Each structure stands twice: as structure tokens, then as C-alpha cells.
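Weekend entry, working from home. Most of the wet-lab plans are on hold until the incubator is repaired, so I used the time to fold the two sequences that have been sitting in the queue since the last round of cloning. Logging both here for the record. First:
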Amino acid sequence: MLGIVETKSVSPVFVGRDGELTVLTEALARAASGEPQALLVGGEAGVGKTRLIEELTSVACRDGAFVAIGGCVEIGGDGLPFAPFSAALRGLRRRLPEEIAAAAEGQEGELARILPELGPSESGALGEHGRAGLFELTVRLLERVAADRTVVLVLEDLHWADASTRHLLAYLFRTLRRGRLLVIATYRADDIHRRHPLRPLLAELDRLRTVSRIELSRFSHAEVRGQLRGIFGDEPAPHLVDEIFGRSDGNAFFVEELAVAFESGCRSGLTDSLRDLLLVRVETLPENSQRVARIVAEGGATVEFPLLMAVAQLSEDDLIEALRAAVGANILLTTADGDGYRFRHSLVREAVSDDLLPGERSRLNRRLAEALEADPSLVRDDERSTRLASYWYYAHDAAKALPVVLLASVEARRRYAHAEQLRLLERAMELWDSAPDSVRACLRPPDDTEVHPPSGEGGSAPLRYLDLLSEATVAARSGGDRERALALSKKALRVLETVDDPLRAAWFWTQRSRLVQDLSRGDGWDELATAQDLVLGLPPSAVHASVLSDVAGWGALHRPGANSLAAADRAVEYARLVGAENIELNARLTRGWLTTEAGSIEEGLAEMYAVRDRVIELGNVAALTLLGRVTINLPSTLESVGRSEEAVAAAELGISLCHQRGLTDKEAWVRANLSESLFSLGRWTEVESAIEEAARIAHAPKARALVAVRRATLALGRGEFAEAGSQVTLARAVFGPHDPQPQHVIAPTRLAMVSAARQGRLAEARAEFEQVVAQGFPPGMQRYALPLLCSAAAMEADARGLPEADAGREAILATVRDQAKRLPAVVPVWRAYDLLLEAELARADGIVAPKLWARAAAAFEGLARPYELANTRRLWAADLLAATADREKAAALLVQAHTTAKHLGARFLVEQTELLAGRARISLSTTPRLAPPPDAVSSLGLTPREQDVLRRVAEGRSNRQIAEELYISPKTASVHVSNILAKLGVSGRTEAAAMAHRLQLFTDLEPTHL
């Protein structure tokens, strides 16, 4: 019997694809040399992606590489979370058990969420930041394993990938920087319709220069002839080639199927229906083999032999005989671990599944579910719940399906697979009304969900439909599907219109507030106010504390002042009463921020530092959201009060913490804040690198808008006014009109105003100013408002004397003076801007006042604000010359201003300084004598960061190693090294290291041979 079905349908000759194989083998060679590679291989189903990968893996194995293959799994039409990564890592662990164990050491509990064989997974509150941390650990694991050996990681069938797999793959492709690792992902191009979830990921990956894509086309007529020659072992008849080429359209898989059909004499049984084409060989199998094929088709992408034994109702010998026939016919294949079976091509599996009668499909799924319930060991632990949930669901048994679907949703959440959790929760909601009351009464909510009110009194209350909506809302938000989360919250609030549950309603209103802000649909205040009204007068609770904390946080961004500070105090009090430490810390962070902006600088900063230290100390997944917030807010607040060096240190620590925990989007915010402080300090070459790093990893709309603001700031400083205006336009478009936070309005307005004024569009610049001041400045906005007022006064001073500038000048200057009175200057940097404003107003009035400029320059001299100091010195020199006062002093000021402006790359300031010096016939070539430095290191003029880099250069570190140790990009490290070489006056790293050792700049250095 077996002889009549065993047939060779795979050509022993590799046909075509020489160019594509060359691309892959070259990538393999680069990976083997230590440069990790990432490739996407796409093509329609059956075009030959698998065969191409097989050829590459053969080459890789011959070269001594370790190959790990994992495929995306479709179960009942649904992807299994992280399936390809789990399968690939499982294969690597079989071959490299000690190496995997060493690479995962200390993080087994987290990594077990993807590779359960590492041990029990950690429990605890989860969220999108926990998932990001898991992704970072996974990338590190791969990098460590591939540090000393070449590893080829193949992820097949991305068109079936679950959302968690897609997110992990995107993270891997974006962040992979080390190791001898080649990652290849394949997908069916013909399945990627306009709304397919893989489509946005492919578009995103196409923008990465580190990712290459190969698209496989169909075979030509000549290639089909070569494929048939390999299958038949002889030259095929021309008419047969023509017919098969015409029927297959050059699809390699269809060519094989048609070739076998023609060879076996089944030509007349074929129709134009694709399903019939795919089923024709299945139907030639013995009956038992067809029965087994139907079980495998319905059981999942892979079905274990013990499960087949339990379901097939065949003796072991008969089952093996049936499987042998299906494998011999190249319809089924054995799995890599030899314990299961899968279809050779997924198209055949789909056709077999679609060919089942409705009752037949339900019966098969019931038998699979019953077998798995009777013996859970039939499948791996990490797949059991998901597969059982799918089997009972497609068996149309709500009583059995609902509990296990909910169990699978909890397991998905614990693996950070939030998209899969959402799908399962929505399936549970679909089953809810069909399940008997007795079943629903036995269900209980999980005990480690995000804070929301319990279903009823005590922990024994049964699960309610509202619990499902709560969990689904959080799952959708955590998985990035904020549109779905918003829709679910709206649905829940409609349900609550008929239920007296104010705490639950308040919780959903806070969710809606966050979501409308995230989606730029509004500022979220109406939703928060509703939540506040609902908890008013209720006993203290975690929900009440969370509402108050959200209100305080909203106020800090939109309406800073006494009311928001009082809300933060109340939130802290309520959180302490109910023992909700994370809510308490969140409220304390807001309180510290508001206290600082209110003028109690040391008190406010001390509280923010205390919160940061406690969050780091906690180190748990539940604190990840708060960690992201404090690493953003602390450097920003330090910068606002002029402590830029301190802000840089806080930001660099924040980048390190976010990077370690995989908080990519939060890291983008911190890098953007870092660039602001670097700009203030005059480290403009580092600013550009920081901005580019932020842009590379920024995905949230507001993070991308902030990057545009930083680019505009740098462009304006460099005198690139058109570029500055373009970036402001981009930032405003991304920020949108629905959530006008003062920080997102005032700073872009100043940039747009100055850009327009410098390009001669005074009316446009004035309109920008008038529009923003009409809204007023909330308390604590000095960091944005004072520079805006200074720029407005400077704009009017520069325009003085122009005929078109007279009308409206006095009104603008009066507004500037009026607004300045309302901005107390309680910290040195604000006082410096206040003095600068006084000098600019005098200039705008045509008053020559060198003493005012001298006071402003003295204020900036102690603040490490080189650009502001250089511009102030230029204007001071101008007034000295206008007053025919101290010409020598004016010349010295111009030389200082010019030197600083050239060092910064501030082209407009350079030009203005040179123009003033030329008119005054002052030479700018004289360099003022510098005071002797206090020590050897500082005598070299190195910044603290450059000293850190020089130390590592002296230790023999490469740019990549320096970048990893200091949590900066290799490009930034390269910029630092170039600056160091220039300042030391040496030609290379070896000379720089030798100088550091010779001068004993770092006394703890060991001698290094370079």
C-alpha cells in the first residue's frame, strides 16, 4: 500500500534563486564576522521561501553555524503568543544547553515567559513596560549566545504572527547591535492585505537601514522546466512544461503538486479550484491517513503523536502506518523534536480544514479537547491552555470553553502577550451569555490585575461581565491598541448606566481620560472631572487615590498651581491610607515637580530624587510605569531651574535604567530631554547625536513631536531658520489641537516667532507672540515664558527703525513688560533671563545701556549657558561702542563672543559678531589670555563626559565598547573621541591614550598596551 503513495515531489535540484541565495550567504558571512544581520524574505504562498531557507541553512551548517527555526503557529485561526521565538529558543537550548543557561542566568523567571523550560515564570503585576523588559532580556539572551558562535535564527510564517511576536521581532530588529547573529523572517506576501496587522510592521522595518528585504517572484518558464527535470529525473516533454507552467503560473509548490498529479495519472481529477488542486493528493491517501490528516489540520500547526493516538481511534500500528503514508507522500512532516507532525505546506492544511463539514469540525475539536483534558501531558505546558481554549471554542461548548478561555487569557497576560489576552477576553465576552449561570458563578477574577475595584464584597465575589471589560480595556491599552481600549471603556460605561457602581465607573472614566490624551482626541479633563465627582464622599480606596493622582498629574501639565499641588497632597494621603505604594510614589513625584515650580526648589527636588531612588529600589514590574515617568520628569525639572549639568547626569542614568528594562519609548523622551540640557551647556555636537538616537526609537506621537521641537531648537541656534520653521510645523501637527499643554505651546511658539522674524516676516512673528500671551502663562512656566519674552523684546529691538515696525511696537513691548511682572525670578537662571529682558527692553526703546548688559553677562557667566552669554557679550560690546566707552573691553567681548559662536556652530551669531566687528574695525583674531587651569585634566578643556570617554580610550576600549558602558550610541562615542583628539592636539587614539598615561590624568589606570 505504501508504495503507491510514496512519491518524490521535491526537486533534488535547487532551481533559480541564485541572486537571492547570494544575498543570504553574504549576510551569513557578515554575521559570522560579528556584524549582526536582519533580513525579511517575502513571497506568495508556495513560491519557494522554505526551500530557499533550507539551502541557506545547509550552507550555514556546513560552516559550523547553529541554526534555530521557529514557525508562527495558527490555532483555530489565532496565533500562539511568541510561538516562533519559543520554538527557536527551544531548539537552541537542545543543542546549547549550558550556553543558554549561562546567558539566561539571573533572569530565568522572566525569560521563562518565552522559554518555559527555563523554569517557573515570575508573577506580579504586568503591563506594557513589563513586556518591554522581557523583549530586552530576549535580545540580550540572543546576543550572549551568539557572542562566540554564529547563530542563524529563522522565524517562519510571519503572516500568522500574533501581535506579541510582531512587537518582539520589531524590537529585535531595532535594537540588535552585537553578536554573530543572522535573523531571517519569512512571510506570505499575498496574505498581506491592506488591513493585515503585519503590514505596518513591514513598513516600519523597511525604514530601518539595518534590515534588508528579499521578495521572491514566481519561476520563469525555463525555471519551471528545470524544476520538473529535477522532479522527474529526466527532461520533461515540452507540452507538459507548457501545461504545468500555465496551470501553476510559476508557483513552485503548485508545479510540484501538478507534476505529481500528472505522474500518477490524476490529471482528469483536477479542476480550476485551488482547493481541489491542494486536496487531490490527500484524497489519494488511504482512508486512515486521510482521517489523521484531518485531525492534524484541526489540531493546530503541529500535533503531538500522543494526542493523535488519543484522538484518532486507531491502534498504534495502524496510526503509524497511516502517518507513514502521509509522510511518504510529502503531505505531513515530522517536527524537529521528532514528537509531532505538521503539514508540509500550510496551504494544504487550510484546504483540509476548510473541507470539513460543520458538524465534523465540532466533533473533531471536542475529541481533541476531551483527550487533552483527560491527559494534560499530551502537549507542552506553555501551549496547553491556549490550545484547550481553542478546541472547546470550536467545539461550540460555551460551558467548557469559557473557563479555559479565561485561564488562557491570564497566561497570555503573564507572558506580556497583551494582544492575545485581548483576543481571548473578547472571546470570553462572546461566550458569556451562552454559558450557564452555574458556570459563571464559579468563575473568579485573577488576583494580580491592574488596580481597579473588586467585583463585590470580599475576594469570593464571582466574576462579572464588567470584570472582563476592565481586563480587556487594560489589555488593549497595554498592547498598544488604544482605539480598541477606548471603545471598550465606552461600552463599559454604557453598561454602568444601569448599575450602581461609582468606583468602577470612576475607574473607567480615568481610563478614558488617559486614552483620549494618548490619541490626541482631547485633553482628558472632562473625563477626569467625572471620575472625581463619582468618588466624592466615598471612603478612601485605591481607585480614589488613583483618581486624585491622575488629577494632580493632569494639573501639573495643564494647570500647574496651588489646586494641582493640593490634589497631589490628597492623593498621597489617600494612597497611604489604603497601602497603595505605587500610587503614592506617583503622586509624590507630581508633588515634588509642582513644589519645585512653585519656587521651593530644594524641597521639591529632594522629593523627586527620593521617589526615583525608591522606584529603583523596588525594581519590580509594577513600578516600571513610574520608573519611565520619573526618569523623564526629574531631568526636565532640573533643566527648568538651570541645573543643566545635574540634569544631564539624571538623564544619563535614566537612559541606562530605561534601556536595561526595555522602556524604549520612555528612553526616547529622556534622550530628548538630554538634548535640551546639552544644548543649554553648549555641547551642540552631542545634541545632534542625542536627538537622532531619540528619533530612532520614538514611536508615541508626543515623543516624536518633542524630537521635532529639539531639532527646531538646534536648527535655530545654527541659523537654519527655514528648517527650524519646518520642524515647528511638524511638531504642532503631531501634538494636535486637542491637548494644548503649555509646554507644548510656548516653546514651539518662541521657535516659530524667532524663525519668522529672522526671515523678515515680522507681522507673522508678532501674531505668534500675541496668540500665545493671550492664553496667559500658568505658574511655574518661567523656563518657557522668560526666553519667549526675551526673544519678543529682541525681535522688536532688531526691527527698530524699520517703517513697517512702528505700528504695534509699543503694544508688544507693553505686553512683554506686563507679563514679566507676573514671573518671579527665584532661581539664578530665571534671574539671568530677567536681567537680559531688562537690557533687551532698553535696546528696543533705543536706550544705550552698557551697564544693563554687563549685569546680564555677569549673571550668565556662572550658569554654563555659553550661547546666551556669547550673545549678551555681543550686545554689550555694541552698546559700549555706541557709547564710545571702553573700546578695548568691547574688542575683548567680541573676540569672546565670536570664539564661542564658532565653537558652537551658531552661524547667525558668528555673522552678527563679524558684522559688528567689521563696522567697528576690530580684529577678531586676537585670543584673550586664559586663566591657568586648576588641574591637569581640566587644563585640557575636556567636559566631564569627554573625561569619561578619554578614561576608556586609555583603557583600550573601542567606540562600541565605550558606547555600551556609557549607554550612548557608537556615533556619539565617535563624536566625543574626535573632540578629544582635537583638544589634545593628537592624531589618533594611541597618542591620546599615551598622553593620558604619561600625564597620569587618571591615577587608577593600569598600563595598557595598544
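Second, folded right after the first finished:
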Amino acid sequence: MKQTLLASALLLASPSFAANWQTIHTEHFNVHFSSEHTDFAKSTAVELEIVRTKVLEQQNRALDKIVDVVVFDPLNAANGFALPTSNNPVMALFTTPPQSDTVISNSSGWQQLLVLHEYIHLVHLAQPTRSEWQQKIRGVWDLYDLTYGDTPRWVAEGYATLIESKMTGRGRLFDNYSEAILREFAQQGALPTYVQLNSDEGFMAGSMAYLIGSRFLYWLEQNYSEQLVDNVWVRMRAVKSRDFDDAFSGVFGQNAAKLYRRFIAEYTYKAMQQEQTESPLNSKLWLKLDLYASNPALSGDGSKIAIVERDKKSNTKLIIYSTEDNTKAQQQFIKEQKQLLEDDAKDIPDTAPSVFKREQKQILNQINRAGIANPQWVGNNTLYFNAYSSEESGTYNKVSDIFSYNIDTGNVEQLTELAGIRRFSVTRDGETLYGEQIRAGYSELVKVDLNTQTITPLFTKSLKTTYDYPTLNPDETKLAYLSASLNENWQLYIQGLGGDVRQSIPMPNGYQYLSQPSFSQNGESIYFVAGLNNKTDIYNYHIKNNTLTRLTNGQEALAYPIETEDGSLLYFSTNADGPDVKTLTTKDRTSVTDLAVSSEAPLLMVNKHTLPPAKIYTDEIVEQSDYAVLEQQATFALGSQYYSSSTSLLSVGIKSSDLLKQLDLQAGYNIDLHNGGLYGGFVQAKYNALNTKFKLALFDYNLDTSRQYQPSLNADIDARGGFAAISHPLKFGQLQLTPELAYNYTDYKNSRKNWTRLSISQQWQHDRQAFAIGQSIYASIYEGRNQSSHWQGYDVATKIFGKAFNIPMFVSFEQKQRDDSNLALGGFSSNLINQQQSSEFVLAAELPFYSATAERYQGYGGGISFKEGMPWFYYKQHQLDNSVYAQSYGLKYQGDFSFGMGPAGVNDLTFNAGLSRVEGDSFENEMRAWLSFYYSL
């Protein structure tokens, strides 16, 4: 469960939510949405209540709490997640529907599938425990509530996927595409082990929790009973604490791993039986690929093929291969084997590969993690492709746009601006494209004039219909495309661009999966992949003759058929290591005469719990209001900080926020666990709904440096006061600017101080995956007043950071100057003292508070890490008034975690840890360590 939550947080990437949100109130749900998602949200509100009623009948359980539901589109992609807290359950629904060639495309409707899947997560995982004292803790402590039970990922996702299929008769359990891939895995002995079910390492590993998890649970229900499976969930919420393994073993009399092995054995046996009945496919390997690959595109002259590939480090590349045989590699191989035998005549040479890897002509790495998808050739030297743009308003975080890549010059140019175009087909002159535009849940087929940026819809938009794979025929007079309406399969159409009548392409009777249409070179026929009886096959439809033929017979999991100039057919063949490109050496055509009479999708399971047919509800909602930012949800906030150079703190408080984190509040008290060196209380508030951000803080603390672990200058500070800041973040692509105005007033035991600070921070970066460069600058000026004098000062900090061969590194410099006032070096950041609201401190975790004082401070540092997101090996030198005071080096890590929405307890977490060697002339050289975890606004 923890892995699922972390993945959801990374996907969401902390969006900002503007102030103009609305809320629909139903009996059991509050549906929150921005104005552009009104239609989707209104229909969702009705669907939620329908799903809840049917789930209550099927599960005999529901949630007593009102569920908060967020409807938005942060990624311009199909997804969603649930935060299963028993006290404040939350669902997030992404409005973009799935594309035809995904494992979630088999549904009666995206909205219905999404609502059902995420609500099952809540009903399954957010049930209160029957232990009264544990439930009371869950009710006041979000982190404990969210991680209670720690259900394995495969259980959480597998069960939601199982019920999604059982209650709709469709879904991933009954998906031909999914089943074809899993059968390939089974026939290669590569189905995941029980431990690997929760892993995301390997081809399609992240999907196995859904696909295999649901099938294992279904196998348990069929071989034992539905009630026994349900008993596991009942035992996990008992007075006696049990994890999943204990709950499962107590019900089934043996552990889940043992039964899983039996399930895999049976599944593999059936797959091998099926393989014995299949005739070999007349194909051969054409190009060996690595892990993930998609969207092959053949150049107009047939000399190059572009393929999007993604490796195990999630590096995405657009690779252009030559279509010619790699004779250089073949000759080199022969030369090496000859040399091998010359050195040792008795040695056994390597076996030549069935095909030598084709020459890579060019490689385009994704830029700034924007992705690469759907390459299309314009001529023989330019590729158009999809990548993400960022919408700065916060309504959407990422929007799919069209970019061009000149393979001769390497130049990349953005062609559309926040258009929301996914798959597309472009004319030969590169001036017009036909694509699927997706915004606010609406999928539309549009024509885009790239010269004028004019976007013209081809049909009336509707939430009932989704489009995919618009494909121009060779003479650009016709457009093929896929379309799916509610409760129907995907259907393939050909539309004349001159206004001709739309032609529906016949499909084999009983089909369920359909995707990836591709015209033949002469435009007289069209290829596509369709699924039938748990298999996927390549089909060809001859347009003039109105004949449908099948070219394969379920021997492989197939994708992306492309006809070459000589009439041969390239295609992707999916195996356990990822797809490879093969070519059909002969086209054994089987005529298909048993055709589907309609596109209505068959339901493979129907019972009294089956949901009604999917529908877009347009009824007026009775109760709708502005989003209520003052509806705060509070949680117990616990933190702890240990610093071997100074002291240890226990932070106890209350933290609250609204669901969208527009207003955050926190109040607490820090208790010194060492010797009373630092203690006090604080109150904080932060408002984020507007483009301009506001922050307020009150503090009351006592710092006695004589009570620290390490000696320092004597200082006994009793301070209370307030801090206020107003900032206005600006973003221009990869350039970020944030001007800020801040004010502090502090009363001390025998004096007082106030200051005003005007600052600006700037950051820029350019990321090419293995290599990256970036820089940041922070500059501020102070105007302050003590009880008896005025003072001025400034802060300047700069950092250059980047990656080389995937190794992160940085160098930094900072300088602080105070005229007629002193800076105090050392100490750590907390809610009482921190760099933002405390002008007199130069915090350094490895040194005690008030290690030394000066009017001028300079710091030089740098670091290197072996992987992004991992600890740094660092060096830091501290200079006071041009003299080196101390240096430190070692290992450190600092990270802030915020989900961006949801319960207050899963946001604004700060984690800091380190181990360093500290050296200086005024103290004993030694190792020092720190570990810190607390909430901070």
C-alpha cells in the first residue's frame, strides 16, 4: 500500500489548485471540480451514488464517512487514485479517457470504470478497525490511519481490478489484450513470483499487481469461495492486530505464496496446452529491442524506422534505425570469431544472432522529462511527436502538445501551445494534422492548421465518445480512426475528407480488443490488431472488395502492423523481456466471414450486482456551492529532530488543511529532549489559492546554547514574535522566478527587533536524461531596526547543478552580510528557528547554535550522488569575516514530501538526515550525525 501511495504522489507532482473551484454535495460524496470539468463532475456525482449502492449490495459494506472526490486532469492521461483513510477518505479522478491499446481500454465507460475501481479501494482499505483504541488513534492521526494494515500492493490493486471486472462484465480480468500478453509470459516461464508481484522492475512489472493479482484472487474465489476471500478482509480489521499474511493463512490454512505457486502452475499449464494447438507463425526477428518500446514509424522512403523506447531507468528516447541489414556489425562479428579461433583453435565460437542490431542513425532524448510519443514522419528528415507542455495556471499540470525534430540538425521546435493533442496523423507538407484532442474529459477528433494554429472539430464533442489513432491514407483523401461509445467496443471507421459518407470496417464476431490501424502502401487495404478469445491477431480489410482476412492465429501477442514498400509486414511481438520487431515472411490469409453485427460489447459476467449500462448523466444537481476553503480537516502532527551537535526536539501539534491545500494551518509545541536547550511554541498559516501566496507565523521560543551537546558561544535567547511573507511565483517554461516581500517583528527579553526583506529567487534547468544542467540564484536585501540602531544586510546564494552520465552533482556558494548586526553560525532548521523567518542565523546542521558570530559569512560547497533522489556525498566550508572557521564532509539527505492534496497528515513533511566529519581550529574534529522528521509550512 505504501508503494501505491508513493507512486500516486509522484504522478500527481503536487499540483496547485486555483480559487475558482466548485463542490457538488450528494448524500455520501462531496465532488470538487474546476469550472471546465463541470459536465464530467455532474455526471460523476450521479455515478458515485449508483456505484455505492451496488457495491453495498455486493460487498455488504460501505463507508459511513462522506467521501471527498476530486475531478481534474493533471496529466492529460488516464489515471486516478484513492487515499484510504478511515477518517477522511479521498478519491482523485483524472478525466482523460484511456486510449485503445491500453489494458484499461476494455470498459463500458471510463467514468464508470474509474469511479468503481477507486471506490472499491476505499471500501476495501478504509474500513475502520474493530479495535476501539486503534481506531481512535486512526481518527486523529492521518499517517497512522493511512498506513494501518499495510496491505500489499498486489492485494489492493488486484482486488479493485477483480471487482471492477465482476461488477461490469468487462475490465482487465476479461481483456483479450491483457490475456494475450500474460499467456506469452506464461509460455516463457516468466510470470512473476509472489515476491515480484509488488515490484515495478522489469517489463510490465508495474501492471502485474493488477493483471495477475486480480486473476489470482479470482482463482481463489473459484477454487475455494468468495466468502473465504472476503473473510481475509474481515480478519484484517479485527481487534487482534494482523497483517495480510496472518489474516490469509488463518483463513486458508496455508500462506498466500504457496497457493500462488499452484495458481501459476495451473495458469502456465493451460497456456502451454494452448501453444501445442497452434501452428508456428511464419515470421522472423527483424529488430531486437530493449524493454519498453512503442509507436514505430516508417519513413516515406522506407530507409528509416523511428521507435520510442524506454529503459529500466525510465529514460525515454526516440531512436531512428536504418532499415538496411547491419553488414558492418556482421563483418565485425565474423572478424571477432575468426580472431577467437586464431587465439585458441579448440575454442567454440559464439553463435551468430538471428539478426544483427540495425544501425542507430539518431537518438533524441526526452527533454525536461516531457516524454516522447507517437512519432510521425514529415518527409524523410523530420519527425513530429507528442510531448508534454506545462500549463502555468495550475488547472492542468501537463498538456500533450506537438513538437518537431529535424534529424539532420537536431533542432526541436514546439508546434502547438497547450492544445491537448494526443495521437495524430500529419500531411506530407507538415502543415496540417488530424488528431485526437482531449480536454476536460472530452475527446474530440480535430483538424489542426499549424500555420494559423486553428483547431477545427470534425464532429460534435460528447463525453459518451472517445477517439484514437486518426490515420491518413497515402493520398491523404481519407482518414481512418477508432471510436468507442459507451457500452460498446472500439470501432474502426474510414471517413472521406471531402465529406464522403463514413464507412464502418467489419470486425470478427465476438471481438473485444481493437487498435493500431495502418494503411497498406497503396491505400487499398488497412491493417489492424483485434482481440478474440483471449488472443490478439493482425487483420487486413480490403476497402474496395469489402473482404476481411486474418493474417495470424493467436501465436503471439501482436501490435503495430506496418506494411513496407516491398509488401512485407513489420509488427511488434511482445514477450516477457519487452517487444521486438518481427516480419511476417508469408501472409497466410484466413478469410473471416463470421462478422460482428454490432459494436455492442459482450459482458462476460452478469448477475444481480452488475452495474447498469454506463451513462453520462446530465440531470441538474440540487446542491452545488463554491469550494469551502474553511472546511478544515485536522490531524495530530508528531515530529522528532536529533542533532548530535546541538540538541533534540519532540514536536507535538495539530495540523489542518482543506482538501485542495488552499489554506494550511498548524500549531504546536517543541519540547527539548536533551537538557532544555531549545523549546517553545509556534503557529503557522499558508494560503495558496491565488497566484499570490501568503504565509504567516507566530513563534515563542527559548534558546540556551549552554545546554547543547557541543560547546558554543554563550547565548540565552527568549524570543517571541511574528513573521509574514507575500510572494508571487512566475514560470516561463523552465525558468522560475519568485519575488517575495517579508516582515519580521521579534521581542527579546531585554530588546526588540524588526526587519523587512525584499528578495527574489530564480531557477532554470535543462534536462536531457543522462545529462542535465541547471542553476539557481537567491538574492535579498534587509532593512532592519534594533532597539537602539538601524541595520542593513543582504543574502546571496547561487548553485550550479546537473547530471553527467546519470550522476547528479552540484557546486554552491552563499554570502551573508549584516552591517551593525551579527550573524550566528550553526544550528538546525525547525518550526521555531528557520532560515526563512530568522535573519540572524546561518544554519548548519553539523554545528551547534552560536558556534561563532560575525558580520559576514561565506559558504562554499559541492556534492555528488550516485542516483537522483538518493543521499549526497558533500563538502562544505564555512568562512566568517574572511577566515575559515570550519569544514565538513560526509553523507546527507534532505527531502520534502507533499501529496499536493488530501488529508493534512500526508502533506508538508520535511525529512533531513546526515553523517559528517567536522573539522576546525576552535573545536575538536569529530563525526556528527542528525536525523529529523517534522511538519513545516
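Plan for Monday: verify the second prediction. The radius of gyration is 31 Å.
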